[in-house]
Amino acid sequence: MEDPAAIARLIDHALLQPNLTAAELETGCRDAAAWRVASVCILPHAVARCAEILSGSGVATSTVIGFPHGAHRSVIKAAEASRALNDGAQELDMVVNISQVVSGAWREVHEDIHAVLAEVRERGARLKVIFETCYLDETQKIRLCEICSELGVDWIKTSTGFGPAGATEADVRLMRRHSAPQVQIKASGGIRDLAAVVRFRDLGCSRIGCSRTGAILQACGGGAG
Q1: CA-CA distance, 87 to 45, in Å (whole number)?
Q2: Can you state the angle between helices 138-151 and 169-177, rounded to 10 degrees?
Q3: Rounded to whole angstroms, how far apart are CA atoms 102 and 124?
Q4: Based on CB atoms within 10 Å of each CB, which residue in 76, 88, 116, 126 is the most buried?
């Protein structure tokens, strides 16, 4: 039997569906605080309220940048990051510019990630970089791992959960193999049960993004509803 507290500390509880109401966002934050997950990753407009609800809980407030396609200009992503950090975010999940990645515009990709990382480092926060692996070939994934290792981001992450496919074991293995040891891995997208959480943890992921947190924790004897 898995320890529910240990499983909870792996989870970034996702509240990112565009049609969530204000009441649902608040309830999700309160549930996450009770579950003592690692963080709540919430829609950007709700960051300040999320931070208020989670204050003192030990659960981090996180949000997304350039979501879900990564196509924003770097200056806009940096401004998004600054606003989110001002609102109380402690962790940011940014999407790479997928178009630039598949075009091989690696200098621009590097600059894009650096623009957000600079904001994060100035505030003592942490950055996860989302690859959206379903759109990329192996060479592109490896180059992103190298760039993120050079820059020293905190996590690299498989997916937004809004693409045509999510996390795979093969992608996590590749990301771990081609990244610096200090760069952590987050699996996200299509992770709906305890077995999947355990499988990705055992592959070396220190964070798991999911929205079915209550059901997952119930399956190992913790959580609620």
Answers
A1: 9
A2: 50
A3: 31
A4: 116
Task: Look up residue 164 and give its amino acid.
Answer: P
Dig out the tokens for 131 from the structure.
């690859």
Residue 119: the pLDDT is: 98
Could you tell me the domains of the chain? 4-219 (3.20.20.70)
Torsion angle, CA of 88/90/91/94, rounded to 10 degrees? 40
Encode pLDDT of 61-89 as tens digits: 999 999 999 999 999 999 999 999 999 99
Segment holding 210, helix H or strand E: strand 205-210
Put simply, whether the predicted model's pTM sits higher than 0.85 gets the answer yes
What crossing angle do the helices spanning 22-35 and 47-54 adopt, rounded to 10°? 30
Positions annotated as catalytic residues are: 93, 157, 186
